[in-house]
UniProtKB/TrEMBL annotation:
CDD domains: OYE_like_FMN. It comes from Urochloa decumbens. Its cofactor is FMN. This is NADH:flavin oxidoreductase/NADH oxidase N-terminal domain-containing protein. The keyword Transmembrane helix does not apply. Belongs to the NADH:flavin oxidoreductase/NADH oxidase family. The lineage of its organism: Eukaryota, Viridiplantae, Streptophyta, Embryophyta, Tracheophyta. InterPro entries: Aldolase_TIM (IPR013785), OxRdtase_FMN_N (IPR001155), Oye-like (IPR045247).
Length: 372
């Protein structure tokens, strides 16, 4: 297949950004930002994955000192962190890519060890997360959270706003608000985790209030055209699930569209189905893509074939790739060929702290394969 005939490799205009292809780097936590400060090796890692006109999203990046729940994840609330991001952003821009920072607050996915003064993690609720089996088989334990008082919520919204300003100051082209995967925004959104009886709990409208306040505050600060939102209405990660995810997603997409000019919505597919040994993407996001005013990015389980299919069908505008891009720094290049050779990702080094191993040492396609 010629590159021009590969739907994933066709150009797309996302708001003010001219993208040369539709292969997006999904946000990927790598836990190599020692002491929550991004490191020079991240400039190597991200610039390896940068292409002219490509779109990339950083790993989840903490908005404040209460936002953390994992070792060595980056932040963007201090001047030192902002300064440390700058050369990383510059390295990506030198390659001509568009780079957004994913803004994150873990909420109750934390322990007192991560919190200032050893305090309890904050959340929509004071119900903790039951121990979770991690991908490598160990059991993760979380602290009992403290339910935020109604009057404390505006300060958390403001942390997102300030972090968005810091991201722009660091040189990022925009920000993605992490409203997915069981973190603080989802703890408010989903009825398994939101047991509040104030104006931030109960009805769908109330549960979505915090998320929408964050989006409006961030859009007000940096401009809606520089803001995307990531959502995972159908997943149940970190004990966050909703009794009516389609209604939740439908309401949110309507409200996000009503804000006007918001750049994109990045939605995670429901869990994959395996049919006759082949992974099948359920494609349940179509109604939300149709209702959204703005760019739609689909994520979760995509490969070259499925990605091409959904772009061709108009099911989505862009597709983000997590594990495949983690292991194949030149993924868009590899997608030029029909059955591209792909490096296999190594789960055991996803979250290890080595600045090279499993991080910047995945090989690029050999020149002879590219030429063939
Ligand atoms: C190592 C790893 C780290 C991840 N970190 C984040 C993150 O920081 N923020 C986020 O929204 N999703 C995160 N995810 C989810 C991915 O962005 C993506 O949704 C998921 O990997 C499914 O896409 P894939 O099948 O293309 O890998 C992570 C996934 C992996 C494997």
């Amino acid at each position: 297949m010629e590159a021009a005939a590969v739907p994933l490799l066709t150009p797309y205009k996302m708001g003010d950004f001219e993208l040369s292809h539709r292969v997006v780097l999904a946000p990927l936590t790598r836990q190599r930002s020692y002491g929550n400060v991004p490191q020079p090796h991240a400039a190597v890692y991200y610039s390896q994955r940068a292409t002219k006109g490509g779109f990339m999203i950083t790993e989840a990046t903490g908005v404040s000192d209460t936002a953390q729940g994992y070792t060595d994840t980056p932040g963007i609330w201090t001047a030192e962190q902002v300064a440390a991001w700058r050369p990383i952003v510059d390295a990506v821009h030198a390659k001509g890519a568009v780079f957004f920072c994913q803004l994150w607050h873990v909420g109750r996915v934390s322990t007192t060890a991560f919190q200032p003064g050893g305090a309890a993690p904050i959340s929509s609720t004071d119900r903790g997360i039951p121990p979770q089996l991690s991908f490598d088989g160990h059991v993760e334990e979380f602290g009992k959270p403290r339910r935020l008082e109604t009057h404390e919520i505006p300060a958390i919204v403001d942390d997102f706003r300030k972090a968005a300003r810091n991201a722009i100051d660091a040189g990022f082209d925009g920000v993605e608000i992490h409203g997915a995967n069981g973190y603080i925004i989802e703890q408010f959104l989903k009825d398994s985790a939101n047991d509040r009886d104030d104006e931030y709990g109960g009805s769908l409208e109330n549960r979505c209030r915090f998320a929408l306040e964050v989006v409006r505050a961030v859009a007000g600060e940096v401009g809606a055209g520089r803001v995307g939102v990531r959502l995972s209405p159908f997943t149940d990660y970190m004990d966050c699930h909703d009794s009516d995810p389609a209604a939740l997603a439908g309401y949110l997409v309507g409200e996000l569209s009503a804000i006007g000019g918001l750049l994109y919505c990045h939605m995670i597919e429901p869990r994959l189905a395996i049919v006759e040994g082949r992974r099948v993407i359920p494609h349940r996001l179509r109604p939300f893509r149709e209702a959204l005013k703005g760019t739609f990015i689909a994520s979760g389980g995509y490969d070259r074939e499925e990605g091409n299919k959904v772009v061709e069908e108009g099911y989505t505008d862009l597709v983000s790739f997590g594990r495949l891009f983690l292991a194949n720094p030149d993924l868009p290049k590899r997608f030029e060929v029909l059955d591209p050779p792909l490096n296999k990702y190594d789960r055991t080094t996803f979250y290890t702290s080595d600045p090279v191993v499993g991080y910047t040492d995945y090989p690029f396609l050999a020149a002879d394969v590219q030429a063939a």
